[in-house]
Design a protein that fits this description.
Number of strands: 12
Largest sheet: 7 strands, mixed
Distance between the termini: 29 Å
Order of helices and strands: EHHEHEHEHEHEHEEHHEEHEHHEH
CATH architecture of the largest domain: 3-Layer(aba) Sandwich
CATH superfamily of the largest domain: Type I PLP-dependent aspartate aminotransferase-like (Major domain)
Radius of gyration: 21 Å
Strand order of the largest sheet: 2-8-7-6-5-3-4
Structural class: alpha/beta
Number of domains: 2
CATH class of the largest domain: Alpha Beta
């Protein structure tokens, strides 16, 4: 990355923390062994993967046996959705209509319905209640939107699910009902304790928390056993086959540990930067629209509509000035379609194509925000 560039796309990718790199280094040369091998050196590496899982579990309020290492958030989401639904192929899955594609695409393989959101991007609980019929086995709601930062009422959804389970038992209905949440954007800024959230499955991604790309985990609560989607040697208690990656496991664990330790202070710092940016935007142009909830949100993500602007052209102009931002999810960057998240919020295709996502991180400063505002002021005048 150009040293002079101001990087404002942390929701897409974060640089690795130096402590993460240090934690991973031993497994590239000295401890290169296959963890499945039977000799002591390999078994030692296997034990260290278990220790990494214990570290992750401690941050989630979980057991290490409930942690499945994956190649990232996309695989973890696929394992959560397909892993549950393949065990109940004739039943139904519900997902919010602002989910990442790695939730929406696997959900499309099954009988499914989408949970609507309001104009601020929060799911409509009353609509969800009506959608929970006796054939629904899985509900998936993102913890905070990767495009707008809008935080979802996961605890309230968990309480609703408890009521439904109780009602099913009273009526002799044995079908389980699980709650999954894609929490990839939140570990650095929001509570991810699985007990407090009340989730049965939780997805995390190392590439979003200053850890290695291609690393992630799926938390699957004891008693919830997703059907394996990758078959082979039966690694990870036969839940995810393939040679385990000790470097990724160690790096992810260290990144999550650091994120948890910095969470409170970093969230407060970014909330101030976000407020500075929003205040400056409205001074620049009072017609600008902030997409999402002003307070119930992840502090590092901001979706902004610049009425009449072309977001692609604006991105190129910003890059020429050394500002790196995004039009939306990095995974959908090649698509010509307007953001499905903004559409779900009732935003027109025209305004969606005039919207940009700015996402802040550990290196973002007040001076960066001031510089960004000056550049935007000239571009959108």
């Amino acid at each position: 990355m150009n040293k002079k560039a101001i990087y404002l796309d942390y929701a897409a990718a974060t640089p690795m923390d130096e402590a993460v790199i240090k934690a991973m280094e031993p497994y590239f040369m000295g401890k290169f062994y296959n963890p499945a091998a039977n000799y002591l050196s390999a078994k030692s590496v296997k034990d260290e993967i278990t220790e990494a899982k214990k570290s992750v579990a401690a941050q989630l309020g979980a057991k290490h046996t409930e942690i499945i290492c994956t190649s990232g958030g996309t695989e973890a989401n696929n394992l959560a959705i397909s892993g549950v639904m393949d065990k109940f192929p004739r039943k139904k899955v519900l997902a919010s209509n602002i989910e990442h594609e790695s939730v929406l695409k696997p959900a499309e393989k099954y009988d499914h319905s989408l949970i609507p959101v309001d104009k601020r991007g929060a799911i409509k609980l009353e609509s969800l209640k009506k959608l929970i019929t006796n054939d629904v086995v899985l509900i998936s709601v993102i913890l905070a939107s990767n495009e707008t930062g809008a935080a979802q009422p996961i605890r309230k959804i968990a309480e609703l699910i408890k009521q439904v389970r109780k009602s099913r038992r009273a009526n002799g209905i044995g079908l389980p009902l699980y709650l999954h949440s894609d929490a990839c954007q939140t570990p650095c800024y929001m509570d991810i304790n699985t007990n407090r959230l009340g989730v049965d499955l939780l997805t995390l991604n190392g590439g979003k928390i200053y850890g290695p790309k291609g690393s992630g985990v799926l938390f699957a609560k004891t008693g919830v056993e997703p059907k394996p989607q990758i078959l082979g040697g039966g690694q990870q208690q036969n839940r995810r086959s393939g040679t385990e990656n000790p470097a990724a496991a160690a790096g992810f664990a260290k990144a999550l540990e650091i994120a948890s330790g910095k969470r409170k202070d970093e969230a407060a710092r970014l909330e101030k930067l976000r407020a500075q940016f929003v205040e400056g935007l409205f001074k620049t142009n009072p017609k600008i629209v902030i997409n999402g909830h002003p307070k119930q949100c992840a502090p590092h993500i901001l979706s902004v509509t610049f009425p009449g602007a072309d977001n692609e052209r604006l991105l190129y102009q910003l890059e020429e000035k050394g500002i790196l931002a995004a039009a939306g999810s990095a995974c959908s960057a090649a698509s010509d379609e307007p953001s499905h998240v903004l559409r779900a919020m009732g935003i027109s295709d025209t305004d969606a194509r005039s919207s940009l996502r700015f996402s802040f991180g550990r290196a973002t400063t007040s001076a960066d925000i001031k510089h960004l505002l000056e550049i935007l002021g000239n571009l959108i005048a």
